[in-house]
Structure formats: C-alpha cells, structure tokens
Amino acid sequence: MSNIVDIIRKKRDGNELSPAEIKYFISSYTAGTIAEYQCSALLMAIYFQGMSFKETTALMQAMMHSGMVLTLSRIKQPIIDKHSTGGVGDNVSLVLAPLIASCGVCVPMISGRGLGHTGGTLDKLESIPGFNTQLTVRQLTKQLSTIGVAMIGQTHEVAPADKKLYALRDVTATVDSIPLIAASIMSKKLAEGLDGLVLDVKFGNGAFMKNYRNAHALARTMIQIGKRSGVNVTAMLTDMNNPLGEYVGNSLEVIEALEALKGRGPHDLMKVTYALGAAMLRLAKIKGGKKLLEQKIHSGDALAKFKEVIKHQSGNIRVIDDYSRLPVARKKKIVRAEKSGYVHAIDTFQIGMQLITLGGGRRQKNDTIDPSCGFKIYKKIGDYVAKGEPLIDVYSAQLRVRNAVAKTIQNAFTIKKQHCKPKTLIRKTIA
Predict the structure, then answer these.
(1) What is the residue-averaged pLDDT of the chain?
(2) What is the 3-state secondary structure (H, E, C) of 277-310?
(3) Which of 65, 205, 290, 298 is 20 to 30 A from 359 (CA-CA)?
(4) Catalytic site residue 169?
(5) 346 and 307, same structural domain?
C-alpha cells in the first residue's frame, strides 16, 4: 500500500512515480485523507524534479477520473473546446465560446479561476451579477442540449481533483510547471467528452512559460496526451509580452468582451479570437473560417448567444446594454509617460501582480475577489508615446492602494528613443 511520505521522498529524490502511487496521491487528496502541507510538499518536489511523460499522463488520468467523465452522445453537433494556458488581459474565452456556439458547434467550456498573476474566466464571469458557474452535470448537459454552450468551473462531479490542486498551486508558487499545467488542463478538458480541443499556449513575461521553447514543449506534451486519449488537439503559440486587449481586471474584461461581440473589439484580441476560432471550426469540419466568424459578430448572432448563456446561468442580461450594472470602480488614476519615445518592453507579469495588489486576484485560496478594479492599457510594445501621454489607467475605489499601484506600475513600461518593432502575436500553430 502506498504511503504519502514515501511518495514525497521518492519524487524529492528525482525518481519516477508509478501510476498506482500517482492514483493514490490524487484519490487521497481529493478525499481529504492527506494534509494540504503534504500535498504542497509533493507539488514542490514535482516542480523541481519534473515528471516523465508517463507520469504526466498518469497524473492527468487520475485527475480526470477523480470525478465523472461526461457522456454527451445525445448531442449531434461536433463538441469542441478551447483553453488558454493563462495570460494578462486574456478574455478570449468570453468572446470565443458564444461565437463558436453561434456557428453550430457545441462548446462545453470548463474553465478555472485566476492563477498566480493570470486572470481566470470564472472570476470574470462571476463579476456579472448573479452569474452561476457551478452547474451540476445534469444542468450542464441540459444547457448544452438547449443552447449548445455552457461556461462553468470544475465541480465535485467533474475533475474535482483539479479544482483542489488548482487552488493550492496558486498559493504555493508551483504554477509554472509543464507536467502540472498539462495534467490540469487536459484532465478537465478530456473529462468533457470532446471531439476536438484548441489550445492557446502563451509565452513571454506575462505567461507561465517565459520562453518560446518551454511553451512549445508544453504544447507538444498536451497534444500527445490528447492523441493518446483519442482527441484531436491543435495548439497555437501566442505572445504574452504585452497584455492582451486594452483592459485587465474582471468586470473591465467583461465589458471589453461585450464590445468585441458588438464588433468593436481591439485588434489584438480579435486577431487571437479569430485564429483560435478558425482552428475550432476546422476541427468541427465546418467551412467558413474567419469570414464566418466575422459574419456571426456583425449579424449579432454571437452576442445573442452570449445573452443566452448569461440568462441560462442566472446572470443579469441587462449588463449587455448597460455596463453600469457591472461593478467597475468609479475612481481611477492616470499613469502618464515621463518621457517621449517608443515602448520597448512591458512588464506584463508585474501588471498581473499589481492586479492582485488592487484586490483583483488571490494571495490565499479563500481570498475574495474585487471585480471592480483593474487597468486600461493605452500603449503596447512598438507604440510611440509622447511625454505626458497616458500609459495606463488604474481603477480602484481605494485611494491609497490606487496611488501606490500607479507609482509601481510606472516602471512596468520601458521607453527608449530608438524605434521598436511590434511583437508577432501568433508565432506558430502545431497539431
């Protein structure tokens, strides 16, 4: 019989865990029979020692089978989902899920909360008054059959092990580990009973994978896990040295997503959305690509589908036309450029961390999110900025915090006289 202390010691010393030991760890932690400090120790050992592909696959399988694996055989539409490895200002899922569903694809999107410096789709959705992300499997399958899309979190029924581990990794500095990220994402995605999956694997200072090489390795790992499970997976490697879009913060990103669904989304957000969406349509074997997606935006079909999602999940649909119903801080501090020049670098990681300082992220598992705070980004890498021009707005109801964050965030922008090229947003697509 396995023993958690022996398992911790074995991984600490760099040895490979057996599938039985990994299954014991996951089932015991999910059941609450091993302590969080022991789980934290094992996570840290995995972080430093890594895992083989065999171990990573076993971890994913154990997490996936910690709850129900959905059977959606009654749904005749192709079942395709998308997942991002996490970024700053990354609200693509809010736009993409209803957009793809409006094209006749079933999208059972199981998402996560904010993790480290990155935002979480669930936290963003829950800034919509009344929005319920905790559907039962029965409610989920009914909604998918009715409107073809749902946006929920892990429950005690679907991937409960990932739900517990996800929160613990967030507060134990064990987030940016290829095997832990791959097992986390693929466990909840493969539990959905998918026909296909598109991954947005981010790299750069605002991503968990700081360099392209590690992001590529993560993408390959998840693609191979998908193949072994009989699911077609496509991955796009996208740059996260800039925040995505113009807003960072839960309610602010909901507003930006609504604007995008109304045809007024910022260029970089829409470029990533359309690229990922076209890949999802290819997996679903639906023709039209970007042109079909643009048509669904301009016709209002995608926005109407998001309205259905909000209504079915008990949210206040009035937010679609009245943004004042969303909790956005009324006070802001404008951070201006101290000199003229071109933006050569943005510390996107720092922007994500400063959102936590404002209250828009978590330091501890049970921290309450303030959905009203955040940032508006005016300049990206390669842009020219004149002295005194706005770089970023800081939204917060707390005067002292707002001013302190504004002072810190000034240093997140590196401005030089020399011209600087914009970043290539989508580096590569692999399958």
Answers:
(1) 94
(2) HHHHHHHCCCCCHHHHHHHHHHCCHHHHHHHHHH
(3) 205
(4) yes
(5) no
